[in-house]
Design brief:
Strand content: 5-15%
Number of domains: 3
Structural class: alpha/beta
Oligomer: single chain
Radius of gyration: 23 Å
Largest sheet: 8 strands, parallel
Strand order of the largest sheet: 11-10-9-5-2-1-13-12
Bound molecules: 1-O-alpha-D-glucopyranosyl-D-fructose, calcium ion
CATH class of the largest domain: Alpha Beta
CATH architecture of the largest domain: Alpha-Beta Barrel
CATH superfamily of the largest domain: Glycosidases
């Protein structure tokens, strides 16, 4: 297949430095007015993304799904959900994006399928011990009548990780494992049939011209033999706390690396493809084992995402990331937001951040929006100068805050329902984004409909009011990405220059660009040099850099 992408030089492969833009498809742009974003919507807005200066789009799942977990419950891995369009719409998107130099990355969900997947329906209709059941994790219950779940594992979304089924004979019978919602039964990845199926699914999309995959829950596929009880249930993706006595029974097991290698071989048969793991494994030295040269190309740097906007913490996590990823020859990746966490323009200025996967509800202490925006911009500007790959979550280029006053009646995240509202879940970062300040639905949807209501404060962040308006977050992102590209910062090396500035800041050099951040205090003297970009509106040479501000200087 002919693509307009420049040829890769060895060691300079596109994924080593790419800026990848995450689309949450139901909330990006609605092409047919039903209030849910779709593929024609994405295609119609490609110009805005080309102007932003990204290299690739990763879209959250577009595949067929009952949408119990917004598409992370897949019922057909080889088709597009009618909600989002058709396979032809998808091909059209891949082609039109390629024409603008933008690659498309698929989201693949291999840990579990939808409970409406034909395989699961077959499993339910078959006997215990059958080959149909062996594709999933069915087990007999404990207790006299099998009424107690097979072990004590909890779902990440709250409640038990097991659901009991009614057997074909009408009696209560076995239990099946679901690390997430009961509509998301876990596959048994020790079953060769499951492995063969996913290899074929990979090829299906690679043959269609996708640039690669973001792999969902990549660290969860293999469960410990015998499914032993866990000594501390805490329903998180990394299985924290770190002082757990026994190894975790389903996060980050050694057996997963074998699967990583099988997939890498498949991708290597194609040209220029890459896969990125969603693997919440800590610490970074362990995470780096996921990107050894015959495994994933990239893995999301969640240690970085979880780091507060504090000088010492930022210094430490950046050093550790570069050290650990370089040690295995992989690029570091940098990410601040995604569809599972509180948007960083809210999170980094909020003192009571709930545990990962949770959000902020209307009766929680409310964040300071102004401080949030300032820190959010600073964190982004500090991140985008770093060597390696970077991820941007739709809306962050607008400085968009989290929706923190969403009424429970609108919520859709299974977390909200499985915990009876105790954890409000992730809907606050998934609200449809604003395009035009004065259109219905802020231009998200022609009729003004929106599957989650947009808060009024979104108006001020609309793309049209920011476009070509100096000092806006959107123009800041555009200039940072343009400089990043023209100075090849993604392929560069970081050298700290903290000795050049006051103690309240951090300063690094990458190529001929110097990036300075001030974390606190009245102001910091900026080293001399041409100002290439800055978060501090009006900053000129000789001015002091205020707290929570960043400047890029040419040296
Ligand atoms: O994410 C992993 C994941 O479930 C966590 O980030 C999660 O959101 C949090 O711990 C909940 O408490 C992936 C997807 O990104 C997420 O959207 C899916 O819901 C999940 O897997 C299941 O497929
Ligand atoms: Ca639609």
């Amino acid at each position: 297949m002919q693509t307009p992408f420049p040829e890769n030089k060895a060691g300079h492969e596109w994924w080593r430095s790419a800026v990848i833009y995450q689309i949450y498809p139901r909330s990006f742009a609605d092409g047919n007015g039903d209030g849910i974003g779709d593929i024609p919507g994405i295609t119609s807005r490609l110009d805005s993304l080309a102007e932003l200066g990204i290299d690739a789009i990763w879209s959250s799942p577009l595949t067929k799904s009952p949408q119990k977990d917004a598409g992370y419950d897949v019922s057909d891995y080889r088709d597009i959900d009618p909600l989002f369009g058709t396979l032809e719409d998808f091909d059209d998107l891949v082609a039109k994006a390629a024409a603008k130099g933008i690659r498309i990355i698929m989201d693949l969900v291999p840990n579990h399928s939808s409970s409406m997947h034909p395989w699961f329906l077959e499993a339910l209709a078959s006997e215990p011990g059958s080959k149909e059941r062996a594709r999933y994790m069915f087990r007999d219950g404990k207790g006299e009548n099998g009424e107690v779940p097979p072990n004590n594992w909890e779902s990440v979304f709250g409640g038990a990780a097991w659901t009991r089924v009614t057997e074909p004979n009408g009696e209560l019978g076995q239990w099946y494992l679901h690390i997430f919602d009961s509509s998301q039964p876990d596959f048994d990845w020790t079953n060769p049939e499951v492995r063969a199926e996913f290899e074929s699914v990979l090829r299906f999309w690679l043959d269609r011209g996708v640039a690669g995959f973001r792999i969902d829950v990549a660290h969860g596929l293999i469960k410990a033999d015998g499914l032993p009880d866990i000594d501390d249930n805490n329903s998180t993706m990394s299985g924290q706390p770190k002082d757990r006595a026994k190894p975790h029974p389903f996060w980050g097991l050694e057996g997963v690396h074998e699967i990583n290698r099988e997939w890498r071989k498949v991708l290597d048969e194609y040209q220029d493809r890459a896969m990125c793991a969603e693997a919440w494994v800590m610490p970074l030295s362990r995470m780096a084992t996921w990107v050894r040269k015959d495994e994933y190309h990239q893995t999301f740097n969640f240690a970085y995402l979880e780091t507060p906007w504090k000088k010492d913490s930022q210094f430490k996590v950046i050093n550790e990331s570069i050290k650990e990823f370089s040690a295995v020859g992989a690029p570091a990746t940098w990410v601040l937001s995604n569809h599972d966490v509180i948007r960083h323009s809210t999170r980094l200025s909020y003192d009571k951040v709930p545990k990962q996967g949770d959000g902020i509800g209307p009766d929680y202490e409310q964040p300071n929006e102004e401080l949030g925006l300032r820190r959010g911009r600073a964190a982004s500007a500090f991140m985008l100068g770093l060597p390696g790959g970077a991820y941007i979550y739709q809306g962050e280029e607008l400085g968009l805050p989290e929706h923190t006053t969403l009424d429970g009646k609108f919520r859709e995240d299974p977390t909200y329902f499985r915990t009876n509202g105790e954890r409000v879940g992730r809907d606050g970062c998934r609200v449809p984004i604003p395009w035009e300040a004065n259109s219905p639905g802020y231009g998200f949807s022609t009729e003004g409909k929106s599957w989650l209501p947009q808060p009024e404060n979104f108006k001020a962040y609309a793309r049209d009011v920011q476009t070509d308006n100096p000092g806006t977050t959107l123009e800041l992102y555009k200039s940072l990405l343009q400089i990043r590209k023209s100075h090849e910062l993604g392929h560069g090396d970081l050298v700290w220059k903290n000795e050049l500035i006051a103690e309240t800041g951090l300063c690094y050099q990458n190529g001929d660009v110097m990036v300075v951040a001030n974390f606190e205090g009245a102001g910091l003297e900026v080293p001399a040099g041409e100002i290439l970009a800055t978060t501090q509106v009006g900053l000129t040479e000789g001015d002091q850099l205020e707290a929570d501000q960043v400047v890029w200087i040419k040296i």
